[in-house]
Amino acid sequence: MSKYKQVYxxxxxxxNNGNLAxxxxxxxxxxxxxxxxxxxxxxxxxxxxxEIDGYIQKQQGRNSIVxxxxxxxxxxxxxxxxxxxxxxxxxxxxxxxxx
Length: 99
Known about the structure:
With 99 residues, this protein is mainly alpha-helical. 41% of the residues lie in helices and 4% in strands. It is elongated, with a radius of gyration of 15 Å.
């Protein structure tokens, strides 16, 4: 397993298990680097993936915060996904029914 996926999975697990509560700040990138012993690029890639999947919100100049599961972060126009992209990521199951 790649290093960034390891960090991603561990933080995601902590969020899902309730060890990291909604609106709680994550440790800084530097603290995560020291904790995992990985490079800043690896930590940033893991955090970016967590943000894309709706687990955290990154804040410039501040630590990332854990999002509530029932809230979704605001989407930028460039981040809008098609139904097939949403379904392939397994984060949503979107179906269209014609009557």
